[in-house]
Amino acid sequence: MRPLRACLGAAAAVTLAAAGTTALVASDASGATTALSNRWYAAAPYLMPLDNNPPDAGAIMDATGLKAFQLAFVLAPNGGGCSPTWGGTAAVSSDTAVQSVINTIRAKGGDVSVSIGGYGGTKLGQTCADAASTAAAYQQVITKYGLHAIDFDLEEPEYENTAAIKNEIGAAKILQQNNPGLYVSVTTAGTADGTGWFGKQMLLEAKSQGFTPNNFSIMPFDGGFSGAASQTSALTNFNSILQSTFGWDQATAYAHEGFSGMNGRSDTGEYFTQADFQTVLDYATSHNMDRFTFWSLNRDRQCTPVDNNGTTSGTCSSVAQSSWDFAKYSVKFAGVTPPTTTPTPTPTPTPTPTSCKTAWSATAVYTAGNEVSYNSHNWKAKWWTQNEVPGASEWGPWQDEGAC
User: Fold this and answer.
1) Which residue in the list 155, 257, 270, 394 is annotated as catalytic?
2) Spatial CA neighbour of 136 closest among 176, 91, 171
3) In this structure, are residues 88 and 380 in contact, taking their beta carbons and an 8 Å threshold?
4) DSSP notation for 277-326
5) Which of 120, 280, 333, 376 could bridge to 3 as Cys pair (CB 3.0-4.6 Å)?
6) For residue 141, which of 203, 76, 199, 235 has the smallest C-alpha distance?
């Protein structure tokens, strides 16, 4: 899934595992509530709560009937280490901003899952020493927010790292054991054949460790896909991979299979419309699949102009739509009929342009936090970069700070 977007030691984590610690409590500072049905966690679309012009989660709930959100992404610190952060920069331990979003959602009867990993940044599986310490880092997230669900988004470049994937799958198994009832999804890249070599290696790692999550989901976009037919074909092929890997029959494989799409224009210029989502939704429900989600709610609104000048945006879909059109397909997957009327949205205030930073240079080296200007926008570097044009890729090294 695309972002645009001091560790407990192994001995401590093993002690935690031996104690069988359960973090699904409602009495801590997280404001945890009674869990929703698994179907809601399976339907939760991705939301970046700190980046990409986050929409008002409460307004989405009122407009669509949505109850569950997949918050993205928990990563290792940009400077290294084995402690969980939001986006590599905001420590989970001291977070109040994401907690506020969660509190708003729960106050309206909803809940969240948290997604770890994603396409960019450094993952905890890459920096923690082993599965136990990786699990201990994620347990901090579960405990702080009183989570009932968690998503492992395992893709490039992490899933090309055998040791990192071993840590992630091992951590997922430990968390599943130590948090009874925890809903666990594993999301990975999709291809026309279902998933690629690294995705298949990840499945084999799960098999070798005896780990079975609620579902394995693929992302059938950014791989030469064209509309819903190509996506349902990939889902059919992925079902065959699940059967052959785990020895499941077709129905069991579908019961452990999920879809994670991208609404509107994808990174590579593919387009997925509301009609495509309906077709895939029909496929998912008719085959009794376990999950139907998409990237992302930040993008579930119309661009101005609609085609966004032929580029992919992190804050709008690049297709004609009403706000939150795509969220309603998640609501339908959860088994609920979305409202027939949409409340009048609160206009988003137009930000006042600020002064421009020093112009970007193709030859200069930039590190995390450096700011430049390019094309009348200010940009902040998310990590080390040189000769990567700001805005050329939504999940590249530059974060758009707005017009200047």
Assistant:
1) 155
2) 171
3) no
4) HHHHHHHHHHTT-SEEEEE-GGG-S--SSTTGGG---SS--SS---TTTT
5) 120
6) 76
Q: Find out whether 364 and 357 touch, Cβ atoms under 8 Å.
A: no
Q: Are 7 and 81 in contact (CB under 8 A)?
A: yes
- For residues 4 and 298, give the distance between their C-alpha atoms in angstroms, rounded to a whole number: 9
pTM for this predicted structure = 0.80
Percent of the chain with pLDDT over 70: 88
Asked if the model's pLDDT at residue 26 lies above 90, the reply is no
pLDDT for position 394: 64
8 Å CB contact between 385 and 369: no
257 is catalytic: no
b/e per residue 129-149 (b: at least 16 CB within 10 A): ebbbbbbbbbbbbbbbbbbbb
Interval 57-73: pLDDT, tens: 999 999 999 999 999 99
Contact (CB, 8 A) for 133 and 82? yes
Residue written as tokens 């990840």? 202
Sign of CA dihedral 140, 294, 315, 110: negative
